[in-house]
Design a protein that fits this description.
The chain has about 260 residues and is α/β, with parallel strands linked by helices. The protein folds into two domains: about 10-80 and about 160-255, Rossmann fold; about 90-155, no CATH class. Helices cover about 35% and strands about 25% of the residues. The protein has helices at about 50-60, 95-105, 110-125, 140-155, 170-190, 200-205, 240-255; strands at about 10-20, 20-35, 40-45, 65-70, 75, 80-85, 160-165, 190-195, 210-215, 220-225. The strands form two sheets. It has a six-stranded mixed sheet with strand order 6-7-8-3-9-10, sandwiched between helices. Helix 2 (about 95-105) packs across helix 3 and helix 2 (about 95-105) runs parallel beside helix 4 (about 140-155). The longest helix is centred in the C-terminal third of the chain and has 19 residues, at about 240-255. The radius of gyration is 18 Å and the shape is globular. Keywords: ATP-binding, Nucleotide-binding, Transport. GO terms for molecular function: ATP binding. It comes from Kibdelosporangium banguiense. This is NitT/TauT family transport system ATP-binding protein.
Length: about 260
């Protein structure tokens, strides 16, 4: 599925919160560009503002300074051009799998035939065709996250935002989901911005890894992942992967120690 747009730019983005009457600086001077079709992962220790950054891009919060721009248009609120998958999938428990996936489409001006086509395609893409009539409580954690991913993608957004979506899963399921999301990304061409505390996950999934420093969050490093575009889990055991993971882990640790 061709994506002609999906370019994200952050220009001098800062965010300050007021907490119990005290000003807390969460992000400072963030400059970042994510090109069309890129898969970019953002890593950092707790307090580095990863989730705040994603909220600003999603339009769920407003920058204190600077601007977030998608395809040349400033982001001023949520919109169908961005699909968000949170850590907990937030499925509607009374809706079946297929009706959860269709939810966003019901809010868009698409025909019932097009809605059915997209639901069928994304259920197949995420391996859920056999569960379309199931309710969320009948699914495993990994299956629920597949539904959340299919729901976000069914609206065919220009940008998919992933907020540590596999953090609560066991190791085996997490790796299965990592393989899935890379395959979906390659099949759809959607631009992806993901935040994760898991450096191994970031290196496996991303074409680039952005390391955020803490207190306030700012870009400490922008690292190109020099690994094949086609990856399976075996790449995690290669010297190139292990070396890059160690380098980024050291960067994250060093930034954390500066504020500890």
């Amino acid at each position: 599925m061709d994506r002609m747009t999906g370019v994200l730019e952050l220009h001098g983005v800062g965010k300050t919160f007021s907490v119990h009457g005290r000003e807390v600086r969460a992000l400072d001077g963030i400059d970042l560009k994510v090109s069309r079709g890129d898969f970019v992962c953002v890593c950092g220790a707790s307090g580095s503002g990863k989730s705040t950054l994603l909220s600003l891009v999603a339009g769920l919060a407003t920058p204190s300074e600077g601007e977030v721009v998608l395809d040349g248009t400033p982001v001023t609120g949520p919109g169908p051009d961005r699909g968000l998958v949170p850590q907990a999938g937030s499925l509607y428990p009374w809706r079946t799998v297929e009706r959860n996936v269709a939810f966003g489409l019901e809010l868009l001006p698409v025909s019932s035939a097009e809605r059915a086509r997209r639901v069928d395609w994304y259920l197949a893409e995420t391996g859920l065709s056999g569960f379309r009539k199931s309710l969320p409580r009948q699914l495993s954690g990994g299956q629920q996250q597949r539904v959340a991913i299919a729901r976000a993608l069914a609206c065919e957004p220009e940008l998919l935002l992933l907020d540590e979506p596999f953090g609560a899963l066991d190791v085996q399921t997490k790796e299965d989901m990592q393989v899935l999301i890379r395959q979906v990304w390659q099949d759809t061409g959607t631009t992806v911005l993901m935040v994760t505390h898991d450096v191994e996950e970031a290196v496996f999934l991303g074409q680039r890894v952005i390391v955020l420093a803490s207190d306030p969050g700012r870009v400490a490093a922008d690292i190109t992942v020099d690994l094949p575009r086609q990856r399976d889990l075996g790449v995690k055991r290669t010297p190139g992967f292990l070396s890059l993971r160690a380098t980024i882990e050291d960067l994250v640790r060093a930034q954390h120690q500066k504020v500890s």
